[in-house]
């Protein structure tokens, strides 16, 4: 997750960070900022200044929000590979 963020332009990193901070301080948050993906997995939705859309998949673990995976959204549906990776990381965290 950290490496993905570091690879983004500064303006995009700031926009994603701002939305993650809003989610953290106002949890639980609903649409349009956050959406439940089921089984304790949530997505934070960020419109970027470059007209792209970013998603950060997270879960609640021991009263903390944990960012599991981030990606730039290119299709309407959340890609299965990205969802599977986040769910795998969520399971690893809960062990």
Task: Please describe what this structure looks like.
- By secondary structure, this protein is of the alpha+beta class.
- 39% of the residues lie in helices and 33% in strands.
- It has helices at 2-6, 10-26, 80-94, and strands spanning 34-38, 41-47, 53-61, 64-73.
- A four-stranded antiparallel beta sheet has the order 1-2-3-4, with helices on both faces.
- The longest helix is centred in the N-terminal third of the chain and has 17 residues, at 10-26.
Brief digest:
With 95 residues, this protein is α+β, with helices and mostly antiparallel strands. It has three helices and four strands, in the order H-H-E-E-E-E-H.
Main features:
95 residues, alpha+beta, 39% helix
Helix content: 25-40%
Mean pLDDT: 94
Q: pLDDT below 50 for ≥5 consecutive residues: which ranges?
A: none
First and last CA, distance: 19 Å
- Rg of Cα set: 13 Å
User: What is the element string, with H for helices and E for strands?
Assistant: HHEEEEH
Q: What characteristic shape results from the CA principal axes? A: globular
Number-wise, the strands total 4
Task: Work out the strand percent.
Answer: 25-35%
SSE-based structural type:
alpha+beta
**Can you count the helices?**
3
Kindly report the spatial arrangement of strands forming the biggest sheet: 1-2-3-4
Describe the largest sheet. Answer: 4 strands, antiparallel
């Amino acid at each position: 997750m950290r490496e993905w963020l570091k690879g983004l332009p500064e303006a995009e990193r700031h926009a994603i960070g701002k939305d993650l901070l809003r989610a953290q301080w106002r949890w639980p948050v609903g649409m349009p900022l956050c959406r439940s993906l089921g089984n304790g997995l949530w997505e934070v939705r960020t419109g970027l200044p470059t007209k792209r859309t970013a998603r950060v998949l997270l879960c609640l673990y021991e009263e903390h929000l944990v960012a599991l995976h981030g990606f730039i959204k290119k299709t309407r549906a959340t890609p299965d590979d990205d969802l599977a990776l986040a769910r795998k990381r969520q399971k690893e965290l809960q062990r």
